[in-house]
Write a sequence for this structure.
């Protein structure tokens, strides 16, 4: 088990290999479909982003509302592929980590290899369990998007696996190959 | 003629929304436990353990198992000797969804216009399928459908000459392409026959059958077993990390169709495959 403390620097990125089990602690940001669309609009308009992407991790998630007394509602990963149209630009701007589930496009993987970024997987559907590792949340942009707003999360031992590393090795492909009959 | 007041329908739907999202159905829990024994991949066994633990946390805290609490799909069987009083049935179902998603701290995931995409804020409208049946009862089945798996579903109008081999090829292709996206181990609902929309509804309905129950029709049962076996040879595995347990079940529902057609719909559902029902 590898422990990672954010920010996720390039040295750590290059040390991670597909299949590595990790526990992430520190600050990560949630963003999904609508927030990505808005981030890219800001980039295209030459405006500054709500947070500096350098060495940051984006978690593709839109949590449930928190019950009274809870930090956050269940917050598992959403399907990453819907962010593929936007991710290469964010990687180019300094993003070093993404957490989600599901396949990524070749364009995303090429950007990860070129600029140095890692794609982590969290277990899809384990949202109630994952919420236990989220210690605080604060909305930092686009509150009008509700569940899709950008949230700054402080996480402790957030469980993840390296799905695709910065060399392009892909656990989905190698794992499936191993068990295909 | 039996009267059912809308308030009873609202309360029932409200509870179904919460229960379906908080509590894993027994057939799925059993399938998870079983696959913990049979799964060969160590990392996938760890995933399966997480899913069991997640179900325990969700039921203990009464929170949703998954943050995607879905679009509410409702199958309503309306006995023809029932008279709904105090309001409109469709509005009552939507009001139940509205209250269930608000009171249950469930995520509101529905957007008003599919292109403008403004959240309706209360997870309505529901997708409601009505069926008029004999009797003086109202059966409501609620299936909160997440879109991680819904997005990986597909429909194809096969030719009659494509036959059973064509169906197999299409189902396996659809599951293979979906890969890790729909949160495997999945349940595969297949609708064969009818018209285009009927096949899709049958595929959705197929997800309501317990994963340990096979079709009553011999050749369909054989097809379900064969397809499950083929799917579990794909190697996708829990969370798509490479393993043996890609699907818990293939459930196939059929309906008469046209001499010229063989519609096939594949509706994929995640490992939670949530549904609850109540009879009023």
């Amino acid at each position: 088990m590898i422990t990672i403390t954010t920010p996720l620097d390039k040295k750590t990125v290059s040390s991670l290999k597909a299949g590595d089990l990790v526990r992430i602690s520190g600050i990560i940001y949630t963003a999904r479909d609508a927030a990505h669309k808005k981030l890219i609009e800001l980039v295209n308009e030459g405006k500054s982003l709500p947070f500096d992407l350098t060495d940051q991790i984006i978690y593709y998630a839109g949590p449930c509302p928190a019950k009274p007394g809870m930090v956050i509602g269940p917050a598992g990963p959403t399907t990453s592929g819907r962010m593929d149209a936007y991710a290469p630009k964010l990687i180019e701007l300094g993003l070093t980590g993404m957490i989600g589930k599901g396949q990524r496009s070749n364009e995303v993987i090429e950007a990860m290899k070129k600029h140095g970024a890692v794609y982590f997987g969290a277990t899809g559907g384990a949202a109630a369990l994952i919420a236990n590792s989220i210690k605080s949340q604060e909305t930092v942009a686009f509150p009008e998007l509700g569940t899709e707003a950008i949230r700054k999360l402080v996480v402790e031992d957030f469980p993840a696996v390296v799905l695709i590393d910065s060399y392009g090795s892909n656990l989905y492909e190698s794992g499936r190959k191993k068990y295909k009959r | 003629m039996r009267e059912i007041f809308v308030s009873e329908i609202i309360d029932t739907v409200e509870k179904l929304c919460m229960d379906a999202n908080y509590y894993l159905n027994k057939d799925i829990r059993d399938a998870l436990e079983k696959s913990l024994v049979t799964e060969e991949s160590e990392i996938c066994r760890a995933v399966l353990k997480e899913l069991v633990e997640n179900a325990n946390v969700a039921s203990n805290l009464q929170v949703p198992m998954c943050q995607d609490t879905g679009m509410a799909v409702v199958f309503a069987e309306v006995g023809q000797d029932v008279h709904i009083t105090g309001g409109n049935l469709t509005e009552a179902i939507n009001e139940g969804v509205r209250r269930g998603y608000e009171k249950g701290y469930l995520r509101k995931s529905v957007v008003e216009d599919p292109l403008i995409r403004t959240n309706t804020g209360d997870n309505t409208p529901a997708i409601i399928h009505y069926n008029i049946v004999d009797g003086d009862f109202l059966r409501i089945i609620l299936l909160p459908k997440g879109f991680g798996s819904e997005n990986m579903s597909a429909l194809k109008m096969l030719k009659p000459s494509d036959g059973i081999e064509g169906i197999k090829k299409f189902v396996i292709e659809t599951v293979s392409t979906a890969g890790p996206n729909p949160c495997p181990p999945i349940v595969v609902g297949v609708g064969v026959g009818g018209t285009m929309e009927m096949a899709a509804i049958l595929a959705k309905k197929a997800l309501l059958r317990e994963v340990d129950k096979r079709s009553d029709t011999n050749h369909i049962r054989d097809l379900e077993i064969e397809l499950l076996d083929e799917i579990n040879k794909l190697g996708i595995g829990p969370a798509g990390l490479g393993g043996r347990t890609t699907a818990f079940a293939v459930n196939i529902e059929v309906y008469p169709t046209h001499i010229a057609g063989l519609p096939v719909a594949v509706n994929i559902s995640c490992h939670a495959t949530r549904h609850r029902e109540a009879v009023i």
About this structure: Chain B has eight helices and ten strands. The two ends of chain B are 14 Å apart (CA to CA). The domain at 148-273 of chain B is CATH 3.30.1330 (60s Ribosomal Protein L30; Chain: A;).
